[in-house]
């Protein structure tokens, strides 16, 4: 994954593991909901004490940045599938969207192979 997708990946998998996708996405609200559920269930390495407000403070910006990059890379459908998958299951199962992650990575790798000077294609 490239930088914007990596940032989103950190927010989504490292921090919250799922968010709601679609036209009515509200990344911060969705992040808070998932974070609170993961806290309540103490899954994905949580001990119930995660500060969800702090964790989700940049969710909207990260989502907007990832959408912008996906559009520019020509990877919007792959990104939408990835993001949609995240809401499609248990937020405590962090590996359920591996195929969608692979598709985003493949698409961004193809773009970067053709556009190696794009700043988003450099190392994070």
Describe this structure in words.
By secondary structure, the chain is mostly helical. 62% of the residues lie in helices and 0% in strands. It has helices spanning 3-16, 27-41, 52-55, 59-73, 76-87, 98-114. Helix 4 (59-73) runs antiparallel to helix 5. The N and C termini lie close together (10 Å). The relative contact order is 0.19.
The general outline is elongated
Unreliable residue stretches: 6-24
- SSE pattern, N- to C-terminal: HHHHHH
Q: How much beta, percentage-wise?
A: under 5%
Helix content: 55-70%
Mean pLDDT, as a whole number? Answer: 79
What's the helix and strand layout?
Blueprint: H1 3-16, H2 27-41, H3 52-55, H4 59-73, H5 76-87, H6 98-114
Helix pairs in contact: 1-4, 4-5, 5-6
Descriptive key words:
124 residues, mainly alpha, 62% helix, elongated
Concise structural overview:
The chain has helices at 3-16, 27-41, 52-55, 59-73, 76-87, 98-114. By secondary structure, the chain is mostly helical.
